[in-house]
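Feature request, filed as a ticket because there's no other form

It would be nice if the structure record came with a short human-readable summary line next to the tokens. Right now we just get the raw output. Example of a typical job, pasted below so the devs can see what we mean:
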Amino acid sequence: MSAGSGSAPAPPFPQTPQFWVLMVNALGLGVFGAGVALLFMGLIGVGDNWYTASDTGWLGGQWWWVGVTAAAGVVVGLLRMWTHLPDKIPSLIDDLEHAHVDRRSVPGIVAVSAVSLVGGASLGPEQALGAMGGGAGGWVSRRRRLNDEDGKVNTLAGFAGAYGGLFSSTVIVVMLILEVARPGGQRMAKTLAATIVSSSVSFGIYFVVAGAFFLDAYQVPSYKFEDWQLPAGIGLGLFAAVVVTLLATVMKLAVVMFGRLKVPAVVRPLIGGVAFGVVGVILPLTMFTGSDQLKTVAESGGALGAGFLAALVVAKILTFAVSEASGFVGGPIFPTLFIGGTAGVLVHQVIPGVPLGLAFTCMLAAVPGAVISAPFALVLLAAFMTQLGALETAPVLIAVMTAFLAVESVKYVIATRRKSSPSTNRETG
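Raw output as currently delivered:
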């Protein structure tokens, strides 16, 4: 056989027409993502004007708030019924891991999430934005008849477009998607390029219209980096793992409790709305996503007291779990940022020798970093939100990785016991 008779090697994928189709798609998805993010965030920003908490202490809320949250629960129940939204929808993490969004559920998710966030539920906007962006990416993939690999790249580019403006950083968005979706092989390089293009376009448009959403959001005192802060990061990470374990336990209990209620499905959000509304009257800082409320905690945490801060952490865990289990729709990132940041202020209150900036930033990143298994993205997010210096990020990374590994080890032990239990039962039988 002659040397020239063999098939020619495939060209590098950037030199193929398919790659440039993905780049064009990413450009369009960035524009689309910025548009829907501006509209959705503008809608919920106007809709939550009914909430004015001049007193953020115990019983600082108004009892008429419970009427609003209950009404939101009624609307959520009716919207879920009218849009045929399933009782259990894939989480944001599931959608990212599979690079797939069920387009039939997108209208219901967006409508229910909008009412949930306006109604004060302890959830974030990222579920609805991801559904719109990822759903648009999947729709474009089908219209252009892309293969399975490129279709997933397109879907992830849609997510990046939806989040580019929200998280105020292309780097954070790209890292978040890569850590959760974990694309392998050639799809990794394609996803990297597509998400950078999409999120960059989205951020550029969003910034011109609305400015940076997260950049320098929380003002915490600066502190001098010292060697002892590195092992302190391990301790803070372990505490974050305890908080995440408590969160997971409460969420499972809430799911079981609402699942056992012998009431029509449309009534469950009403009960959930009343529940988190009552907690909101008692502790107003537990309402809504927690983004603005965490600013209050960071600014006045020294005057709130350790007992009040501990109550805030537990109450926010409860309202987050109740909101999800009762049928409200939203994402986990914003509420867990509040839980983590407040827990960090609590650490400083209990152990004053730990600088507030260190405790706040480590816990701010470690709790959501362990929940969504995206440690590096959350380190970057915490650094951008608090304007940490380069040296100060080292203990934050240690805290996040400690929390992540501790939570994953617990998951591993539980999974191992579940796998071994059937054989144990057979042997004993």
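Something like this underneath would help us a lot:
Confidence is low (pLDDT under 50) at residues 1-5.
The first helix runs from residue 17 to 47.
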